[in-house]
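Justification of computing resources. Each target in the renewal requires a structure prediction run like the one illustrated here; the chain below, 78 residues long, is used simply to show the kind of job we budget for.
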Amino acid sequence: MREHTNHVRLTTSELTPAVLEGAAIYGADDHKVGKVDHIHGAGAGGSAVMRDEDGDVHAVTSWTKDEFKQMSEYRDWA
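Resulting structure tokens:
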């Protein structure tokens, strides 16, 4: 299990496609639910985006993989 409490949240200025694309997304049960493929608009709604001790960017959300699959946008980034 990843220990996200020690990871540093990204600032608003870091929430760019260059930084976010390819980032892993971890769901409510701390399992990987996907990755960021591309960004629509600004920000990463519904997620906390952070950098781990190795410098890797990832997002943490309260959504589960099943909840992501129910969203129409999921097909764009699954």
